[in-house]
């Protein structure tokens, strides 16, 4: 008789948890997974997928307007928010079903309900206790809204996907990728949008040129940005029909919706991790080693709950490392260097490798190649939209350390250059590559003069 009910019990059926569970089952393990909300986690339900769908929707109005430069005569477009939300919900429901089939097809037992640890090998789900040789915590993260007066009147990105009506005016608070993405979405859908950020430039975790250039392009499109500003309190207006956000400088903005995008916290509250002696970081993240093992040998964690790199493909890779190390040959590892990232703002941002500042810090002498220009598409639209492209190169070895871009389809373009950086490509190899003409991407292989 087996000592435990399962070889692996996964808490959380998001990207990392599902991948680890399926892969472990494929290696012969007896696996169960518990999920209290929705299959696919943040990415499928209130993250990557619906956000990208909303981003597509937000671009259509601009595309229709710019089509006039190419001879198209289109009647004034009308947008219906409820249609977008309904169609999005139908696609998410389909994906939930896909995840359920994937787990069932792999032989993973799915338990619906909230799971909590009792000890190092025991989990309780809605009063039922099961045991496992190993437990994997993959519960993701959750948006944080600061506890200011009136914060209950604000929403996070979670609620933004389910608004009953599209507001006429929105304040988006934050300067990171979620903030700029949603500000772009609302603005693109015709909402009077203001982005409020306490810092001096957007995307402070990325190369400095990206945030500055993005802000300029967003403002050129008519989106309002208030830097060095922060909301101190939110209240309803006297007639109750709107919100009044008072800023730290004493000024006030009237709006119909305040959305906070100021950070996410690891979702570990109420999981019973203390019962098992699992060490947590100050922000609640599970502390793990390079194999994603916690301070308790039988308990592992992956994804946003460990607060390393909050990206779906990273969670997937981490889940596979855990499954392989526990039930396979243990030869798989994860390299966090040169992970590509795309931000689906308008315009898009794509980046891989080191920022200019990080490259100088690590390598000393570097060369920076930078260009900004009006892409061919907009020569007939009159939009004035610009593209920024940047290479960061180690001067001694000529190895390309970073590739950065703000412009259309930046994520699609950067993905290919991520492969090049992973292979250690040099500037000389970039220069020897024939570009595809006329494209935006060809600029990355035609920049010849270093800017610094």
Q: If you had to describe this structure to a student in words, what would you say it looks like?
A:
Helix content is 31%, strand content 23%. With 452 residues, the chain is α/β, with parallel strands linked by helices. It has 3 domains: 6-143 and 265-327, 3-Layer(bba) Sandwich (FAD/NAD(P)-binding domain); 151-262, 3-Layer(bba) Sandwich (FAD/NAD(P)-binding domain), CATH 3.50.50; 341-445, FAD/NAD-linked reductase, C-terminal dimerisation domain (Enolase-like, domain 1). 42% of the residues are buried. The model has no long low-confidence stretch (mean pLDDT 96).
Short note summarizing the structure:
This protein is an alpha/beta fold and 452 residues long. It contains 12 helices and 21 strands. Helices cover 31% and strands 23% of the residues.
Which spans of ≥5 residues are poorly predicted at pLDDT below 50? none
Radius of gyration: 24 Å
The end-to-end distance, rounded to whole angstroms, is 68 Å
Mean pLDDT: 96
Count of individual beta strands: 21
The CATH superfamily of the largest domain is known as FAD/NAD(P)-binding domain
Structural class: alpha/beta
- Percent strand: 15-25%
Reported for the largest beta sheet, the result is: 7 strands, mixed
Q: Provide the number of structural domains.
A: 3
CATH architectural designation of the largest domain: 3-Layer(bba) Sandwich
Query: What is the class of the largest domain in the CATH system?
Result: Alpha Beta
Total helical segments: 12
Q: Do you know the CATH topology of the largest domain? A: FAD/NAD(P)-binding domain
* Approximate shape: globular
Range of helix content: 25-40%
